[in-house]
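Q: I'm writing a short explainer about Exodeoxyribonuclease 7 large subunit for a general audience and would like to include a description of its predicted shape. Could you first generate the structure from this sequence?
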Amino acid sequence: MSAVPKPAVQPLTVSQLTAQVRGTLEAKFLSVWVAGEVSNFTRASSGHWYFTLKDATAQIKTVAFRGINLRLRFDLRNGMEIIARGRLTVYDPKGEYQFVVEEVQPKGVGGAELALRQLKEKLLAKGYFSPARKRPLPRPPQRVGLIASATGAAVRDMIEVFAQRWPFTELVVRPSRVQGEGAAQDIARALLQLNWLHRNNKLAFDAIVLGRGGGSAEDLWAFNEEVVADAVFKSEVPVVSAVGHETDVTVADLVADHRAETPTAAVIALTPDRRELLASLGELRERMGESVARRLRLAKQRLDQIAARQAFRLPLQRVHNAGQRLDDIAERLHRAARHRLLEAAQELAGRSAQLESLSPLQVLGRGYSLTHTGDGRLVREVDHLRPGDLLLTRVRGGTVRSLVTATETTDPERTDPGARDSDPDQTPAAGG
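A: Of course. Here's the predicted structure. Afterward I'll give you a sentence or two in plain language.
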């Protein structure tokens, strides 16, 4: 059982004890380097980072405040091996000691290299490097924007090469810092400004060139910043990145529509060489002259051959021959027409004779007659007539009008008076 402190002993409160421990730790471990693996990494909305540094047998709570994080070129991730400099302190509310980071370096690789690697991975995932989105360069361009240092050799070289190769292109120079603090933001701002002029029909650009000479990786770092990559990606005007030398590849090179190894190479990619064009035009003119001369010779030969033909030596001969053929054809047509008319007349006479033989009028010529009632009905039977009926009798040479005074029936079977009342629509007997 623990001993009860004597009244003369003044105990410490938890807060007092924690404060003394914190003071001892902070005085003893004011600045210390610690190597370990990042785990349990979280990013607070305040911008602070909280994680655990651990090795095979131990771990320590770690915090990196927002001001430190903003200066880091790379992001921390779980599983990353780092070397961190900082101080030890105690977080009073939980009574835990923690490591407050003030500087971080990746273990085994430089911070800048790691930051560049992480940025490339991020932009690759977002499609910034996709060949499908890269636009062809206009050649030759009418107006080009140059973003470069106003005092650097790059802008002078580009202007000089443009003047030599294709002086017809209008150049608009937008001076910008290309290295050092704030250079990335200035480059991005220049891209935005030239795109604003293009979008608002102030100055229409065919291409924009980002140019600077070579330098160390640190000198070229502005072109590896995400803000520049975003501005290049969002540019409405095709962008040519001409940064550094052939061995230097920046993020801007990867995002741009075209990557040129040097500023001079950018101008060559954009323009034809007028001297080469003039030489080519000279060759084309010579070849064209030879081709025209050859075609003229062939045309003359063809013309001589045509002129030697009979149609040109005796131009009316074909007309005379055609006239004779026309006369022959006309004569044959007349003979055929006469023959056809003769055949038709003979056929018509034969048919007329046939019709004449079948005509009822021929029967009248042999002493027969046709009798109709006054209303035009043919009289076929005597019992269809009544005394007083008007009759029209057709004989050869004319018609006889007569009135019925009486009728007599010669057929004994038709003497029945009732026969007179039979259907009047029956066909009447023939008259004679």
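A: For your explainer, you could say: The longest strand covers residues 32-43.
Q: Perfect, that's easy to follow.
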